[in-house]
Amino acid sequence: MELYQLTASELAQMLRNKECSSEEITKSVLNRIKETEDRVGSYVTITEETALEQAKVVDARLAAGEALSPLAGIPISVKDNICTKGIRTTCSSKMLSNFEPPYNATVIEKLSAQEAVIIGKLNMDEFAMGSSCETSYFKKTRNPHSLDHVPGGSSGGSAAAVAAGETILSLGSDTGGSIRLPASYCGVIGLKPTYGSVSRYGLVAFASSLDQIGPFARSVEDISMLYSAICGMDPLDATTARREYPDFQKDLSNADLKGLRIGIPKEYFSDGVSTEVKEKVLAAAKLLEENGAVLKEVSLPSTGYALSAYYVISSAEASSNLARFDGVKYGYRTENYSNLIEMYENTRSEGFGDEVKRRILLGTFVLSSGYYDAYYKRAKLLQKQIQQEFADTFEECDLLLTPTGTDTAFKMGEKTDDPLKMYANDICTVTVNIAGLPAISLPCGEDASGLPIGMQLIAPKFAEQILFNVSRKYETLVGGLNKVAVL
Amino acid sequence: MDYEIVIGLEVHAELSTESKIYCSCKNEFGFEVNTRCCPICTGMPGTLPTLNEKVIEYAVKMGLALHCDINQICKQDRKNYYYPDLPKAYQISQFDIPLCEKGYVDVLVNGKEKRIGVTRIHIEEDAGKLLHNDNFAGSLVDFNRCGVPLIEIVSEPDMRSAQEAKVYLETIRSILQYLDISDCKMQEGSIRCDVNVSVMPKGSDVFGTRCEMKNINSFSGAVRAIEFEANRQIQILKEGGTITQETRRWDDSKGKSFTLRTKEDAHDYRYFPEPDLLTIVLDDSYINTVREQIPELPNVKISRYLREFGLSQVDASLLVEDPEKAKLFEDTTAKKQCSPKSVCNWILGDISKQMNEKMLPLSEINISAESLSELLALIESGKISNATGKTVFEEMLVSDKMPSIIVKEKGFIQISDEGQLETIVQDVLKNNQKSVEDYHNGKTNALGFLVGQCMKATKGQGNPAKMKEILLKLIG
């Protein structure tokens, strides 16, 4: 067993028992990257030097007998749309290929305060727009379980790195499923936290009202540890909630499923979902039922409209959020211009990829005068209705269980020419963002070709503890979820 | 045909909060370029705005002062457009639900009160500034002003002359000053206005097509711009043409306006609710607390000065126009050592003259309610003459000494002793026989000459009224 194959909580224990050093852990991960990265392609930037320096600092503190934070000395990698001071943050776009932020995102400040070891910045779909990690300007990340398949997106690098053992933990961001879908495709755990529980300060915005940073890991305890480290009110993000968060790890082992009401929303098991996925997800539900949970079929009738509402709202916000990339202050600027308008037009034409341009055009259209009421306003009304349906459903159940994706990972290039087919991958995940809810994706088996299948648990706002408890119980029942891909 | 001018104004006032509207950068004018900015106000990727609550307080204050309804639940919106001085490529402003709306302000035009409707007041952020340098072909951007809080005060099209517009602007400025929420320094751009002008045949109640004029940076410039624009439109109509709705740029140095963009080229700002900020919710007790902080406002003050102190409308308006002058007037009068009328005359006379000559605000003129009150008491009690008073005043400005001390040190006490004065007058008569004869021959102005000679003989310290009395008695 290599160190990179272990979980953060196991490694944290070993560090404290002096069974290994942070430097050894970090080197194990960096060596794994050297072995597998040319095949997986998770990283845009690897910060080997500063990672080893940080590891040595932690080792020195350990040697001096000082107390350590839970994540001290543990390798963590970060999606490349989360700002890291002095380390280029590209959003996997030509537009920001040379951008070094002058500040750290709040989550990075929190990880630094815990002395976590930051290994590097992870590949993604350009500006987090995509479901396959194929729209990156730099490279296409591959699914570690089958290299000719996509890892899912947009946080494809974050999921692939954890699945490949190229890091222990990672951060991604989820606007419509960008954490959960790749987690599902890569057979790891991914949490999309409640909107407002993790600061977005320093996350390069895609759709501000839907974006949320969240953790990837290979064990439920690790997910809860990393979530504990990053959640909380931030004076720099007005949309973070003023509230106290419980000690998520304390009650983790005592989870009891008895009487837990799990809703199975029928709209999430429609014909669009593959038979294999349905079977495995329902089998997982059955396992929970056998251990005391009560399954209930429920209905969320507006689910079918959610995808349209999602693409209207997210594109509208994106068209405004991405307007700042105009070549004036930072990032890419065209060399081909003779006046201001030309500078704007050529910079943006050359700096953005097709998918980003598609969303900017769509978003600009739906906000235009004369169309606003027909699109944006109606999408916002639909959002209210979806929120209400969830609220009503949570009156009769404690959480919901659904598939994460409609199918397992698809082949690279299979959907790149059909945006609508690509967008349909998000059908099970977007409702959660629209309603601002927390949801976790857990591996629940494999298809006939050995590709991972994911199930999604959805809870009421700020009920992450229920997600962790039930996930932990499931993890125990199936004998653990930590599985590093063989490469 | 005679035409009537219809004017509506949009006033932008920078608020004098300590920090900017969405970050903690200092809100200061006049510093080296790009030294009052941070990742947030320069729109770095990933940064987020957080609202400075002082901005709400200041804007609500203005709203209450202008009798507006306060929208206790309101939001902020993004106004999307590209310009290099706008680093996010959108301005956070308010679109369909402004913080304040449906108000009014009463202004005095040639002594007559006129009510001007206030459509709305909303909060927004200022943009940066473009700079041009001879050594550099392109433009440079100074982000110091990015995120400086602004309120935009939009009037109804209720004004009918450039003069009314000017008085409205002066009234708005004066209220901002009384509320102490804006520096109102036109030359620093802390108060700016856009003007909407249309014309219609006299007696009509259907407004003509309006044109908006931007880039106006003084009140007198606004007057010139309105007059120019109204004449331009009237000329077009008289020649049988039609007015095109457009935005025009006023060039004050040329005294002309130029087409900036027509209605067809108008921006689609694609407003939508700012998702990074929460809904603004203000409860009744908050509004009441703000209301309690509002001081007596200029028009109420003017009426009170008329009633309480018997001042003229003109004098009261001039005093009230400058909150510092009004304060000095009230503080001095409160000491009850001299008449309000003379306090008013001195502030509007000698003191204002000093301010104008030195181009200084009253706060930087070396005069206080204590010193002014003492000076005027000395004059009114006859201890010094008015002429000596002016000399003492000059001395006060440079010496920090109280007037009584100056009078004592310089020996300025007025001679009112009749015996002493009579001796002096006798001497003057003896030495000016010719003038005495002239007087007796009916040349009455000879008397003035003799009084002047008496004053000279007393080095200005003789009580002029008493001397004249003695003179008349002795001359027979």
Largest interface: A-B, 44 and 28 residues
**Assigned CATH class of chain A:** Alpha Beta
Number of helices of chain B: 15
The number of helical elements of chain A comes to 15
In total, how many beta strands of chain A? 11
- Describe the global form of chain B: elongated
The CATH level-2 architecture of chain A is identified as Alpha-Beta Complex
Mean pLDDT score of chain B, rounded?
92
- Percent of residues in β-strands of chain A: 5-15%
Number of strands of chain B: 16
Strand content of chain B: 15-25%
Task: Indicate the low-confidence ranges of chain B by residue numbers.
Answer: none
Shape of chain A: globular
- Rg value of chain A: 21 Å
Helix content of chain A: 25-40%
Structure description:
The complex is a heterodimer of chains A (487) and B (476). By secondary structure, chain A is an alpha/beta fold. Chain A contains 15 helices and 11 strands. Chain A has helices spanning 8-16, 22-40, 48-63, 106-113, 156-164, 180-186, 220-230, 275-290, 303-321, 340-351, 354-367, 373-396, 419-423, 430-435, 464-477; strands spanning 43-46, 75-79, 117-122, 169-174, 189-192, 212-217, 261-265, 294-298, 399-403, 439-446, 452-458. Chain A has a single domain (1-487), classed as Amidase signature (AS) domain (Amidase signature (AS) enzymes), CATH 3.90.1300.10. Chain A starts with 7 loop residues before the first helix and ends in a 10-residue tail after the last helix. Chain A has an 11-stranded mixed β-sheet, with helices on both faces. Chain B has 476 residues and is α+β, with helices and mostly antiparallel strands. Chain B has 3 domains: 8-200 and 268-290, no CATH class; 298-410, no CATH class; 418-475, Orthogonal Bundle (Arc Repressor Mutant, subunit A), CATH 1.10.10. The longest helix of chain B is centred in the middle third of the chain and has 20 residues, at 219-238. The radius of gyration of chain B is 30 Å and the shape is elongated. Chains A and B meet through helix 9 of A and loops of B.
